[in-house]
Amino acid sequence: MEMNRVAVFCLSLSLVLSVSCREADFLSVYNPEEISDADFPESLQDVRSLLTAAYGAMHSYEFLGSYWSGYAMYNLDHTVDFLYRNDQSWISIGAGTLEIENDKISAEWKVINRGIHYANIAVEGAQSFRQKADPGERDQVDLYEGEALFLRALLWWHMMSLYAEPDPDGVGIPILRHSASSFASAQVGREATGACYEAIVGTLLQAIPLLEGQHVKSRADVWSAKGLLAKTYLFMEKYAEAGEVLSDILAHSGKTLVSFSHLRNMYNGDPVFEHPSESLFEIENALFPSNPNTYGSGWTCGSSLSRWFTHFYIRQDGVRENCDFSNLYCHDRNLVRFGYDTPAPLNFVRRSDDPPSASVGYVPFNTTWQGYYLDAAYVAGQRAMKERALAGTVLPSDPDPRMYLNVMIPYIDSCRAEGGMEWAPVAQSAKGGWYLPGSGNDPASYYAFPLRKYQFLDGKLVKDGGDCTGENVYFMRLSEVYLMYAEVLARSGDESLALEYINKVHRRAYGRHPDRPSEYDYHSMRDRTKTADPADHLANDPLKYEYFMELFGEFRWWEYIRHFRMGQEEASFYQTLRGPGDAGVTEIVFPDRHYAQPIFNTELDANPAQEQTPGYR
Length: 617
Prior knowledge:
By secondary structure, the chain is of the alpha+beta class. It has 20 helices and 15 strands.
């Protein structure tokens, strides 16, 4: 058998050689149906297609398509607590007890690196095509290359916020500045955190001149790049450089703060409110309900971020219904930090098929919703407090108005019911009843308010949203620029001007003109904030408090926890999470290793140059 194979091979080779003598190009592998590295990209559209892949990487299901909220950032920064308690690997992320890799927090490593690879290909494609582009096309090639460079820096930034130690000499991430043409060329190790920041700065300095002239609102422009550049300088503690870039943004970008009413409507998928005057960059998403696939964001330009924390509502027959997974809800301690100290709604709700006597102060929840009765005074008080927040007439005892942007108030707020046909009252987040015995929570203070920011409000997500929502994800807004500038000013000793920029942000939330003094202003950098807990480490720190309030639920508060090295203080404030099964509560701890998360062991096995994040096995 073996000899026959050899004979056949030799015969074939002799035929090839004999024909090759007559036709020299017989062995050419050129195929006009395939793409050749030497020829591609051949057009401006080809370059655009490469760039589209880099933008598309932001939508990966294990990244901003889903995991980045419910699995990563919302647990690390304690935006949420757990309604679903049967997954210790998930709970351990929020509790600070994660020991080894798990796919909820290490899967992002893979897909972000893939996005960096796409960005590098787009950079190289633009550089290659520029050599043969018509003169009239070169400006557009510059824009495409600038966008690709920005996306590479942005993806590096996101990797840093999850996997890099915050200290400059700590372990950072791999920095790959070229596409990986072979397995060996992709095998690079992790650089020091400081060197990674330098790489981001260098890439953005390349991108900025190329992005001049970009005016398409859905794409990265020069202000997107300068915003990230300023933030990188700030985190590098290069305050003079950060201040210079921030001053440029403030003086020349034309960005302005939107009204609080506009801000409150920017996060639920209504395109009328997206790309506002204060946005420096946002990841574009679109609702695509016709997609039949589960986890629709994996196949569309949409998001499944809100699957993990969709809200509950009350059907007309009195049954509580969740709008999809609904595994998470706003951590109760966030309400305390918002300045909300009203007793828990549980104390004001009676579930009964028999109407209570009017003498006990209960009124029907709604004449068309059966079985629920509320304390009339509670309803009136909650509605009045919300109306004051939205009207800019907040009383000293009221919470910060941004609470009504960040969460929904059970029995006061409403949403579209399944099918999007009618409005239904929002309920507390507690499957099977108002309060779960064995959860370890005190029923007298169990709030379980649903999140509102990045929430799908137009029906049941799995049905009416096709597992996919259309809210844009904001990377940077002008309010954050103001606060970064305030931080730079304060560090330079100019506390008076720093306080003014903090107050600009604060005034907007309270319905006042950002540039005019108001009765709600802070009077010093150590003034009392709205948190209801005087032991909160943000109780007398307006700068950090405003960072928290503006960035709550936007996946960026964690960045500042790392920046200010306040992980332990945050753990002490939030104290506990709901534990697994019937174990009651889990105490939140913060070992230093928790600033940087572990990566896949398979990555370590495949790449000898790679090392595990320090502190993990």
